[in-house]
Amino acid sequence: MGVSGSGKSTIGKLLAQDLDIPFFDGDDFHPQQNIQKMSEGKPLTDVDRQGWLESLNKLAIAQLKNNSCVIVCSALKQKYRDILNNSLGDKTLWIHLQGSFDLIQKRVQRRADHFMPTALLQSQFDILEKPKNAIEISVDLSPIKIIEIIKNQPHE
User: Fold this and answer.
1) 1: Cβ–Cβ under 8 A, 6 or more apart, which residues?
2) Which principal EC class is assigned to this enzyme (predicted)?
3) Helix pair angle (32-39, 46-64), 10° resolution
4) Which of 101, 136, 143, 144 gives the lowest tally of CB atoms within 10 Å of its CB?
């Protein structure tokens, strides 16, 4: 989890590949109206996010019947994480990729193939609620080091 540009997709793909489990990018599950809204520079509301978060929760429940998986999404507020974690109990390992606004803004500006405009980044930082039960990892570290830290965390 983390704001746009924190490296969720990069780290998630690498971790899933390393663990040989499925990877899902939450961005791929946004309804078209959410993508359109963000593309226009408008931040999503809680109502906009509700169905999207519920679909990611259903995905997690289905995947965990067979194996584990990596699902990445912003999960900026505790209530979003509660929706995502519904019926999962202690099966979720939350990883919060965090970094300074300046560093992440530079990353977002370099991306050419994403619907999230740089102008919305501040709104994500503004609503971000620090997670209570997450492993906090600095995005200043290399992807390899971040994966190593995640793999060394105790989990089921």
Assistant:
1) 8, 72, 73, 74, 75, 76, 81, 94, 95, 96, 97, 131, 134
2) transferase
3) 130
4) 144
Residue 140 in 3-state DSSP? coil
Instruction: Give 99-152 pLDDT, tens digit per residue.
Output: 999 999 888 888 666 556 667 788 889 999 999 889 999 999 999 999 999 999
The CA–CA distances, whole Å, from 16 to 39, 112, 141 equal: 28, 24, 18
**Residue 114 and residue 84: Cα distance in Å, rounded?**
23
DSSP category for residue 70: E
Whether the full predicted model's pTM is greater than 0.70, yes or no, is yes
Distance CA 23, CA 75 (A): 16
For residue 101, the Cα-to-chain-centroid distance in whole angstroms is 16
Residue 95 is given by DSSP the state E
In tens, the pLDDT along 25-67 reads: 998 999 999 989 888 888 889 999 999 999 999 999 999 998 8
